[in-house]
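User: I want to check something. If I give you two sequences, will you return the structure for each one separately, not as a complex?

Assistant: Yes, each is folded on its own. Here is the first sequence with its structure:
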Amino acid sequence: MSRVDVDRGGLTYTIDTLRDLKAQRPAAELFFITGADAIEQIVRWKDAEQLFELAHFVAVTRPGHQLSLEGLPADRVTMLEVPALAISSTGVRERAASGLPVWYLVPDGVVQYINKYGLYEGPHA
């Protein structure tokens, strides 16, 4: 858990976060865990070629998604199969924006935070 993105403020990119974390802990080996669908898009991220120098990426499988690691450095990306749990951050945000419950999809504290601050409500949702 880190506050580097919160403390930096403004628009933030993964490359910025990884650079900050590496500066804070130069000897640490960083791991970036993300969904299999996102790992395939990583080549389009800001400064994508440098991401793999800063962290090892772990692509977690998602139900119904065929993972392709083509074009990604094999020594810097690992696939991790997890039991089928069809929960995505996009789906959680869409449910919250539609007024549907997200209990049991995210920790209780996250549900309370969403409700307290009215996240995903209104025209900006």
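And separately, the second sequence with its own structure:
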Amino acid sequence: MRPSGRDLSEMRPVSIETGVTKHAEGSCLIKVGDTHVLCTATIEDRVPPFIKGSGLGWVTAEYGMLPRSTTSRMRREATAGKQGGRTVEIQRLIGRSLRAGIDRVALGERQITVDCDVIQADGGTRCASITGGWVALRLAVQKLMKVGDVISDPMTDPVAAVSCGIYAGQPVLDLDYPEDSDAGVDGNFIMTASGQLIEVQMSAEGATFSRSQMDQLMDLADKGVRELVEAQNAAVNA
């Protein structure tokens, strides 16, 4: 039995509310169970120096957790003077995941920055950030297309992410914090709507896992991503 009482292949409730901030070109508040992330997308008419003049666009991301997003207050990284290794790793993951679903030639020489701020954490914050980040990015691109700044839709395929793992000896979908903190195996699966893999992060936390179990986790991830893509499409088409 999972601590939440969910079935092994059952996602937490997912909701995505769009247009939650006034100034960002694209924004949403994604809730995956008790994990809540505010995602905003900002369009700038510039690109990093390493692609300047190439005609290619760029999508990047920043990620952060608010001080009381967890059970005890954490110090703001700004006050420490630098980002932690986990933060840097996650925001790079978000950026390259979102870039996998966009045609940078069609985007044109501009940059879209997706900011993901965790308001409340209960496991799977990076997965929620990628899933919500795609919605914010989609909304920003729609604005570019509406005013004619982009002619051909650069969004090639929705991108979403979900966690899976081995908990109490059983493959489970969408780990919350009690499961994540006690899982024998923990993984994050980033995929496109068409089922293409972007990245898989798997690690044995307390026990090794078999090829058969990996296949089971892949099947669970595929199911979870399909459900998340449905939520994404419903949000951007509302």
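Because they were folded independently, the notes below concern the second chain alone. The longest helix spans residues 211-236. The chain is about 30% helix and 30% strand.
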